[in-house]
């Protein structure tokens, strides 16, 4: 019998199938990292929509799983040694799923080289691209002082150039498609799409990132993952 009912979050988001991995998320740039990964590796899972715009990630039930109040988070009832495991932080979840399935994370030295790009996304790309969204599209666009927007836009342009240089002569960040690509696809897509910052960050002046993004978005698993959890 599954131990899933012992997790308080299941009171608000009940599991239809408590024997499979449970995903608590929304299809934001951080959220789709995990849904894309799950679609890529073919692991059975059950998605639960967490409406962050309605502060559902700050409810008692969600905070019992992630005290930081952010999506995504998972519970895997078949974790290490057969015991359930609860995890938050998208980068940690990507590494966990790669290790669990033996997919999309190479071995040896390349394992750590792949992870450095995941951590680069988590520590730099996500925070700066997110601030561009705030100051360019959301409440911050009304601020008279445009220096914060310029600061975050300039740094985002620099980060894109770092990625562009890495992709020179490569189809994927690590030559083979990996969790490094998965961690970045949603953020780059959002920056030039949902955040309307394509011109602001001079995206079309890049030599390699646009084609990389197009390749990534063409993958069937990526297309599916970008829509999960469904808001319908």
Task: List the SSEs and their pairings.
Layout (H helix, E strand, L loop, with lengths): L8 H4 L8 E5 L5 H11 L3 E5 L10 H4 L9 E4 L8 E4 L1 H12 L7 H28 L10 H20 L12 H14 L16 H9 L2 H6 L7
Parallel strand pairs: 1-2
Antiparallel strand pairs: 1-3, 3-4
Helix pairs in contact: 2-4, 2-7, 5-6, 5-7
Overall structural domain count: 2
The CATH class label of the largest domain is Mainly Alpha
Structural class: alpha+beta
Instruction: Give the strand order of the largest sheet, numbering strands 1, 2, ... along the chain.
Output: 2-1-3-4
Spatial extent as radius of gyration: 18 Å
Second-tier CATH architecture of the largest domain: Up-down Bundle
Per DSSP, the total helix count is 9
End-to-end gap? 31 Å
- Oligomeric state of shown chains: single chain
Strand content: 5-15%
C-alpha geometry? globular
| CATH topology value of the largest domain | Glutathione S-transferase Yfyf (Class Pi), Chain A, domain 2
* Unreliable segments of 5+ consecutive residues: none
Compute the average pLDDT: 97
Record field, number of beta strands:
4
The profile of the biggest β sheet is:
4 strands, mixed
Helix share bin: 40-55%
Order of helices and strands: HEHEHEEHHHHHH
């Amino acid at each position: 019998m599954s131990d899933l009912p012992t997790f308080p979050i299941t009171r608000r988001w009940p599991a239809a199938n408590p024997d499979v991995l449970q995903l608590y998320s929304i299809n934001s740039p951080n959220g789709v990292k995990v849904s894309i990964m799950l679609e890529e590796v073919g692991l059975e899972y059950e998605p639960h929509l967490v409406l962050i715009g309605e502060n559902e990630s700050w409810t008692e039930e969600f905070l019992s799983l992630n005290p930081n109040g952010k999506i995504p988070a998972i519970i895997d009832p078949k974790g290490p040694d057969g015991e359930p495991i609860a995890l938050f932080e998208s980068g940690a979840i990507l590494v966990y799923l790669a290790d669990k399935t033996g997919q999309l994370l190479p071995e040896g030295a390349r394992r750590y080289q792949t992870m450095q790009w995941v951590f680069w996304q988590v520590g730099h790309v996500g925070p700066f691209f997110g601030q561009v969204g705030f100051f360019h599209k959301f409440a911050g666009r009304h601020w008279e002082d445009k220096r914060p927007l310029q600061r975050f836009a300039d740094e985002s342009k620099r980060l894109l150039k770092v990625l562009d240089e890495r992709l020179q002569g490569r189809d994927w960040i690590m030559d083979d498609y990996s969790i490094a690509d998965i961690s970045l696809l949603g953020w780059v897509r959002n920056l030039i799409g949902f955040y309307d910052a394509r011109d602001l960050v001079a995206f079309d002046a890049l030599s390699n990132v646009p084609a990389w993004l197009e390749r990534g978005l063409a993958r069937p698993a990526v297309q599916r993952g970008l829509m999960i959890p469904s808001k319908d």
